[in-house]
Amino acid sequence: MTFTGDISWVDTSSSSASELIALFALENKLKLDDYSAKLLYAGIVGDTGRFLYPATTARTMAIASKLREYPFDFCCFGAEKWTLSAIKSLNFKAMFMTI
Fold first, then answer.
1. C-alpha distances in angstroms, 65 versus 6, 21, 84?
2. How far, in Å, CA of 87 to CA of 65, rounded?
């Protein structure tokens, strides 16, 4: 069996590809495991800037809410990156303050 990329799905009102995939899965009652739900949620969180970008809609939040019903640790998304970024920024500022 050979699959080709003949299907094109464009939805400019979606925040991310993860939102589209999650929407497809949820609307078609496809079974998602916890890990898949976590990855889709992470994709939405990342592409919406933690739900701060204008592309975040009520539908985005509804889909994210459905994904949050799966048992995974959602608190860690973005925290490591922000902490590392903040530390680098503080180190950079401290370097100039000591000159």
1. 31, 15, 28
2. 31
CB-based burial label for 91 (10 Å; 0-12, 13-18, 19+): exposed
Contacts of 3 (CB under 8 A, 6+ apart): none
CA-to-CA distance for 71 and 38, rounded, in angstroms? 8
Confidence (pTM): 0.70
> pLDDT digit of tens for each residue in the chain (99 aa)?
565 667 777 888 888 889 999 999 999 999 988 888 888 888 888 888 888 888 899 999 999 999 999 988 777 665 555 455 555 555 444 444 444
